[in-house]
Amino acid sequence: MKRLVMVGAGSRGSGMYAQPITENYADEAVILGVFDTNIKRAELLSRKTGGKIPVFDDFNRMLAEVKPDAVIVTTVDRFHHQYIIAALEAGCDAISEKPMTIDADKCRAILEAERRTGRQVIVTFNARCSPFATKIKDLMRAGAVGQVYSVHFEWFLDTEHGADYFRRWHRQLKNSGGLLVHKATHHFDLVNWFIEKDPVAVFATGSRRFYGQPSAISGPRCRTCAHKDDCRFFIDVTAPAYRELYFDCESADGYWRDGCIFSPEIDICDTMTLHVQYEDQVSMAYSLTAHSPHEGYRLVINGEKGRLEAETFAHKRNAAMSSHSIKVLDRDDAVITHQVAKLSGTHGGADAILLRLLMRDQAPDPHQYVAGSRAGAMSLIIGAAANLSIASGQVIQIKDLLPTL
Ligand SMILES: NC(=O)c1ccc[n+]([C@@H]2O[C@H](COP(=O)([O-])OP(=O)(O)OC[C@H]3O[C@@H](n4cnc5c(N)ncnc54)[C@H](O)[C@@H]3O)[C@@H](O)[C@H]2O)c1
After folding, report:
1. Pocket test residue of 35, 76, 79, 121 for ligand 1, highest count of atoms within 8 A of CB
2. How far apart are CA 374 and CA 369, in angstroms?
């Protein structure tokens, strides 16, 4: 029986871990404590899972009293390293949500703590577990394009999903590392996993074109906004989707879930382009747009034998704009199209697949869905290097940031 504690009782902590673990894995794992700087949210998590998870008001005391096997880290990204390192130092393993952390200094500190303590960090890249990504991995493993030469990867968030990052804590670089770390750590991990190569250097440009200032309409938050009726981005934080988890917990820390997406506080980019050089002369052109009419990605992997083209995207109001297929083109004009079935469940069924592997030690993991600190580092460091490149205009060498990897 795994003895677990949790730090971070927000949407992910509750939805991905606390609720499904207590409901579906009672024979494999028990959650023996939860800590969150917002004690109301920790209490809510405990209540929602049957009232048996003790709420602690001090993380270190929770570790000392419970002596867990592992700590599940689902806080705001900027604090992941503190809890991961404290967990390792206390002799526990850490299961961290992506991104493992948000910059190179914190990343090196985690890697060093893991080496020093001999404990293990797992980083939960649920995006690997989708059937679509798994099919690409299988095709690449089977040598669909032979030796890889280059990658083109375009990710687009629609204005519903994309806007949500500009309402919440994510909108400040100091909290999330921006979308190139917070969000793109998934994307870079997928590429690293597909092509099995390490990044060497990054050049990036980024700007904010759609969210933030200047704007004709803005206010501190939706709830008190004078433009409620004429802003297409208005959300009602007292609606059932947000009320218990955020609105009812505001008095504990003053955090608003409905910050204005045109706030002057926003300092992250919404339009970003990268050139990533990988080992063995493989290059990647990557872009992330957070204000697209539709949502999904297009990925091309060029290689010795031809090209793999994958696209999966959807337009909420125009089904004709949706696509979901993988094509492999060889140099003799043959094209094989692969259709991949979608699963139900959160993140296209990926969350349940990953949680099963995390909870059941003996469950086979032939695709290596469960990632460690190296994959966590190699994906976040591309985004962290991109942030440095955007700020300096320079090409950033990965070995200068992570000399030991
Ligand atoms: N893999 C995925 O698909 C996926 C999806 C969503 C979120 N996430 C990750 O999960 C984590 C949590 O995101 P979320 O959507 O639940 O956000 P959230 O805002 O709902 O929850 C964050 C929680 O962290 C708590 N917190 C803030 N500062 C803290 C501190 N110093 N110490 C302890 N707790 C603190 C907040 O009070 C809040 O309860 C993030 O790292 C995010 O990247 C992953």
Report:
1. 76
2. 13
pLDDT band for position 214 (cuts 50, 70, 90): confident
Extract the tokens encoding 272: 């970003």
- Going by alpha carbons, the residue nearest to atom 39 of ligand 1 is 10
**What is the per-residue pLDDT for 326?**
98
pLDDT at 215 over 90: no
Average pLDDT over every residue of 22-36: 97
Q: How many angstroms separate the alpha carbon of residue 79 from the centre of ligand 1?
A: 9
Atom of ligand 1 nearest to the CA of 168: 19
Give distance in angstroms: CA of 181 to centre of ligand 1: 14
Q: What whole-number percentage of the chain has pLDDT above 90?
A: 94
What does pLDDT average to over the chain? 97
Q: Which residues are within 8 A (CB) of 12 and not within 5 positions of it... i.e. 6 or more apart?
A: 74, 97
Q: Looking at the CA of residue 77, tell me the nearest atom of ligand 1.
A: 41
Vertex 280: Cα angle to 144 and 181 (nearest 5) = 85
Closest residue CA from atom 26 of ligand 1: 75
What's the CATH number for 2-126? Answer: 3.40.50.720
Give the pLDDT mean for 39-63.
Answer: 98
| Total-model pTM | 0.97
Residue 405 pLDDT > 90: no
Which residues contact residue 229 at a Cβ distance below 8 angstroms, ignoring those fewer than 6 apart?
none
Helices (H) and strands (E) in the chain, counts: 15, 16
The CATH code for residues 128-211+267-343+372-401 is 3.30.360.10
Tokens coding 404: 């030991």
Specify the DSSP element, H or E, that contains 134: helix 131-141
* Structural domain spans, the chain: 2-126, 128-211+267-343+372-401
Give which of 151, 146, 153 is closest to 186, Cα–Cα.
153
| Cα distance between residue 195 and residue 382, in whole Å | 15
